[in-house]
Amino acid sequence: MNREGNEEIALEFVDRLSDSLGFDKERIQHLFEKNYLARNWGKYEHLLRFDKEISHIEHGTVLYEKGSSFEFIMGFPKIRRAMVLYPTLKKHFNGLSKLAVEEKMNGYNVRVAQINGEILAITRSGYICPYTTERANVKLNLKFFDDFPKLVLYGEMVGPDNPYVPKAIYDIDSVEFYIFDIREKNTGNPLPTAKRRELMEKYGFLQVKSFGEIPLKTAPEEIADIIRKLGIIEHEGVVIKDPEMIFPPLKYTSSQSNCSDLRHAFRFYNEAGRDYMLSRIVREGFQTVEWNEDETEFKKRCMQLGESILNPLRESLRSVKNSQRLYEEVRIRVRNLKTASDFEDYLKRLGVDAVFEEPYSVGAEYLITVRKLNKSTNDKTQAIWEGELW
Ligand code: ATP
Ligand code: MG
User: Fold this and answer.
1) Which of 281, 303, 321 represents a domain boundary (last residue)?
2) Residues 335, 354: one domain?
């Protein structure tokens, strides 16, 4: 096709997008120029993603042509955090009598949907992850998507064969997809929690654990108890939801999960965001005061917090001092070696510095160790050992 032909298509595309979004054409062009609206690449080039929240369209929203118009898969809305349970729950959920309390699992957020006949897994930012897409096709009951082509499953990929957030704290051999939300395409409207659970049960999907519906009145004490118990087994925390999914959910986490995040953050201290580190320390302060902890409990918390900062830091600094490069080792499990090479390209494309080791086969699948290099912390540490200033 000649150059003019291409431009014509592009203009016509912008026209239709402008009608569909209700934005004027200049605005659409501006979004493309700034890469706020960007394309995936390769065979997913036809899938556009919002790289930024624009006029109530969530960051990570994906859109594509469907017939003569467009279909949208909304990004997963940000869940705000309760720093204290009382009076926050009462204030936020004012007027509700009961709250649905669910476990917050620690993995990575994925949307799975049928897009023009294919089942694809979309990351929080709206990328199609080849690894997660293969896992979703292997693990999920795909009949669901034929029966409900208009619904999108939102869930957490959890377990040891997880290239982003590997966790051995759950009783999972490899990696599993736990559903926590179902929303309609285009509108992004969520199903009420009970309806979602019933539907998922019917199709045999794994779901995040439910702690039932708890009266708003007693929620702060009851949730504090749940959190203490989850903390003992190193689980992350809870997400507290309006059963009808009209009020936005809130999250609240255990001290052990804050410490676990800090251990990771301080191991790679130059990669981790400062807000990320600070907010986890401040949470510890609020929790100890809200829970009225005595001196013994407080001392224990201080030790745990201090150790989760200094232990990994000491380990990293020593490694570099001994000329060992810092990296994080993760593992993936694929059915098809092509998935692994697609995933390698994908990570490269996203700027992740990763080395894939030789695959070894287990049954019908392959395990591959992936080393993610932490160049920034490594270089900074080395420079300091060589006498550089902070
Ligand atoms: P957010 O922008 O939503 O705060 P984040 O990555 O900063 O995202 P997290 O602290 O991990 O935040 O908390 C929100 C994430 O928790 C969700 O994006 C989702 O992936 C995950 N999650 C795990 N379990 C649940 C659940 N039961 N309900 C909702 N989300 C859950
Ligand atoms: Mg998380």
Assistant:
1) 321
2) yes
Which of 281, 296, 321 is a domain's end point? 321
Cross-strand partners of 128:
122
Pocket residue to mutate for ligand 1, from 183, 236, 245, 251, most atoms within 8 A of Cβ: 251
Measured by CA distance, the residue closest to atom 9 of ligand 1 is: 79
Identify the residue whose tokens are 């070894």.
360
Reported pTM: 0.94
Reported as a single tens digit per residue, the pLDDT across 301-327 is 999 999 999 999 999 999 999 999 999
Q: What is the CATH number of the domain that holds 270?
A: 1.20.58.2250
CB of 208 closer than 6 A to ligand 1?
yes
Of 171, 131, 151, 176, nearest to 350 by C-alpha is: 131
CA 236 to chain centre: 13
Query: What is the torsional sign of CA 119, 124, 127, 130?
Result: negative
**Rama region for 23: left / alpha / beta (φ>0; ψ in -120 to 50; rest):** beta
Note whether 49 and 40 are within 8 A (CB). yes
Q: For atom 11 of ligand 1, which residue has the closest CA?
A: 106
85 has which bridge partners? none
Number of domains present in the structure of the chain: 3
Q: Angle CA(308)–CA(313)–CA(317) in degrees, nearest 5?
A: 165
Q: How far is the CA of 151 from the centre of ligand 1 (A)?
A: 20
User: For residues 218 and 209, is the Cβ–Cβ distance under 8 A?
Assistant: no
- What ligand is nearest to the CA atom of residue 167? 2
Determine the distance separating the centroid of ligand 2 and the alpha carbon of 106, expressed in angstroms.
5
Which of 239, 254, 283 for a ligand 1 pocket mutation test, highest count of atoms within 8 Å of Cβ?
239
Helix (H) or strand (E) holding 174: none
What's the CA gap between 60 and 40, in Å, rounded? 11
* Residue 76 beta carbon below 6 angstroms from any ligand 1 atom: yes
- Parallel/antiparallel/unpaired status of strands 37-39 and 98-104: unpaired
**Smallest Cα–Cα separation from 197: which of 243, 159, 135?**
243
**CB of 180 closer than 6 A to ligand 1?**
yes
Ligand 1 close to Cβ of residue 182 (< 6 A): no
pLDDT digits (tens, 9 = 90+) for 147-204: 999 999 999 999 999 999 988 999 999 999 999 999 999 999 999 999 999 999 999 9
CATH of residue 63's domain is: 3.10.450
Domain with 374, as residue range(s), is 327-385
